[in-house]
């Protein structure tokens, strides 16, 4: 039984489930940001726990596959080395889980911060969608909206 589950979860299947699994969190953030479900399941440690489990699983599978973890540090040597690293599916999966985890965390922060400043949930719709797709730009759009609600510009919070 465990052997069947282990053989089922290769990199491609894990990629599919990670992408599918993060969608409910984003849908709750976008459509029900003030609900108790959002508060307990999305803006808590729960999604981080799940995505960390997927990350550890990829680490384990990569370790068993003799992945060169020290080779990851080559990404600091130049853009061509990054391109070489992205050709490896394990590294690509490390990056992808990292990317969607950070974007989800930022989306949760936007919702919590928007509630602190009483920003209309319909106004948060656009920055949350953009954060899901291209994180930093969505965060910047939220920051512009936040300036008007906070009536001040803070470079730190």
In short:
The chain is mainly alpha-helical. It has 8 helices and no strands. It is 76% helix and 0% strand.
Set down the secondary structure blueprint.
Blueprint: H1 2-8, H2 11-31, H3 36-42, H4 46-64, H5 79-86, H6 89-116, H7 121-133, H8 135-150
Helix pairs in contact: 2-3, 2-4, 2-6, 2-7, 4-6, 6-7, 6-8, 7-8
Rg (CA only): 18 Å
Question: Per the principal axes of the C-alpha atoms, what is the gross shape?
Answer: globular
End-to-end separation in angstroms reads 50 Å
Element order: H for helix, E for strand = HHHHHHHH
Low-confidence sequence ranges: none
Give the integer mean of the pLDDT values: 85
Q: Main sheet? A: none
> What structural class should be given to the helix and strand makeup?
mainly alpha
Number of structural domains:
1
- How many H/I helices? 8
The beta-strand count equals: 0
Helix content: over 70%
Which percent range describes the beta-strand content? under 5%
